[in-house]
Design brief:
- By secondary structure, the protein is of the alpha+beta class.
- It folds into two domains: about 5-140, 3-Layer(aba) Sandwich (Creatine Amidinohydrolase, Chain A, domain 1), CATH 3.40.350; about 140-355, Alpha-Beta Complex (Creatine Amidinohydrolase), CATH 3.90.230.
- The protein has helices at about 5-15, 25-30, 60-65, 85-95, 110-120, 130-140, 140-165, 170-185, 245-265, 275-285, and strands spanning about 20, 45-50, 55-60, 75, 100-105, 125-130, 195-200, 220-225, 230, 230-235, 235-240, 300, 305-310, 325, 330-335, 335-340, 345, 350-355.
- A six-stranded mixed sheet has the order 4-3-2-1-5-6, sandwiched between helices.
- The protein is elongated and about 70 Å long.
- The N and C termini lie far apart (about 50 Å).
Length: about 375
């Protein structure tokens, strides 16, 4: 039984729980080594306090689950079958005394929660495992960090492709296609999120999407991208200049860079997430751009591109070695330009180390 699963069973014991029902695919991967996107189908992992564990998956995924090295029982069901009847059958064989059950309230749908109550009517108490699972995933092992380093190297490769192809006249969508095509040719099967390219004033929308907008001479062009490497992700952002830019554009870039580099230098074990956010935010505010930095400084990542912790005001969690998160200040001036500079990092004994190494000094294409 792997260490992650041992820790989950300890959570059951500490909270007097008989059973855990895990439904989030990335959390199922974390405990079993098996990752699948079930779409509308049911994928469920049950762990009992007695150390028995069962994986219930669509029949078409059974072989993959077994090949992933999962040591527990794997049960499949056909599309025409009710998966919860099969779940009920095997859980009843194990015990009819499940009274206290842990679930992921943030992930479990109401429909599946009602199905669970139907097949286990004897349950007296449901306990939310979300915080406990987030805490477990918070500190990465050396093996996990190595996989994220691999994803970071792939992101650096993508930035190199971006620099080689970004020129006046090309559209944001064409740049996305060229980046993702090059990644596939390199053997990268998945990006961790839809690649984002925003040119000129389009970059002032932090959560926009690529369009047929053409890159123009004198634009700042923002690239936010990431890959999946052995089921662990990268997430990084760079902003490049196309030709010469104005003093106003350069000022925005320089302030954002100062905030990012200062936060990178300041981050270390013992400071809080809120203190780190404030360190970067104060610099941007000091230069008069505070109102244009309208999101948290960073977020955790690992098997998912957004995990715990949030690097933001109000989060008094202290940084610890092994934590992985992004540091991504941004300045977004509506109708003018947007700049974001982002590295994802892992906390070491003395500071942080980035997963990406593409230069952050202003690159003119």
């Amino acid at each position: 039984m792997n260490k992650h699963l041992e820790n989950l069973i300890q959570v059951l014991e500490d909270n007097d729980l008989d059973l855990a029902y895990i439904s989030d695919p990335t959390n199922i991967f974390y405990y079993t080594g098996f990752l699948a996107d079930p779409h509308e189908r049911t994928l469920a992992f049950f762990v009992s306090r007695s150390r028995k564990n069962f994986l219930f998956t669509p029949q078409l995924e059974v072989s993959s689950a077994k090949d992933a090295g999962f040591s527990g029982q794997v049960y499949g069901y056909l599309d025409q079958e009710d998966p919860y009847k099969i779940i009920a059958q095997h859980l009843t064989e194990l015990s009819d005394k499940f009274r206290n059950v842990g679930i992921e309230k943030s992930q479990l749908t109401i429909a599946r929660f009602e199905q669970l109550k139907k097949i286990l009517p004897q349950i007296d108490h449901f306990f939310d495992l979300t915080a406990a699972i987030e805490r477990q995933k918070l500190i990465k092992t050396n093996d996990e960090i190595q996989k994220m380093m691999g994803a970071g190297e792939e992101a650096d490769f993508a930035f190199d492709i971006a620099q080689k192809n970004c020129r006046p006249g090309i559209t944001e969508i064409e740049l996305v296609n060229q980046i993702e095509s090059a990644l596939r040719e390199k053997g990268v099967l998945h990006v961790s999120f839809d690649t984002l390219v925003q040119a000129g004033k389009m970059a002032a929308n932090p959560h926009g999407e690529p369009t047929t907008n053409q890159v123009k001479d004198h634009d700042l062009v923002l690239f936010d991208l990431g890959t999946v490497h052995e089921n662990y992700v990268s997430d990084a952002t760079r902003t490049f200049a196309v030709g010469e830019i104005t003093d106003e554009q350069k000022e925005i870039y320089d302030v954002c860079l100062e905030a990012q580099l200062t936060a990178m230098d300041y981050a270390k074990p013992g400071i809080t997430a809120a203190e780190l956010d404030k360190k970067a935010r104060d610099i941007i505010t000091k230069h008069g751009f505070g109102e244009y930095f309208n999101h948290r400084l960073g977020h955790g990542l690992g098997t998912s591109v957004h995990e715990f912790p949030s690097i933001m005001e109000g989060n008094e969690m202290m940084l610890e070695p092994g934590m992985c998160f992004s540091i991504e200040p941004g300045i977004y001036v509506p109708g003018f330009a947007g700049v974001r500079i982002e590295d994802s990092v892992h906390v070491t004994k003395n500071g942080v180390e980035p997963f990406t190494h593409t230069s952050k000094q202003l690159i003119k294409l």
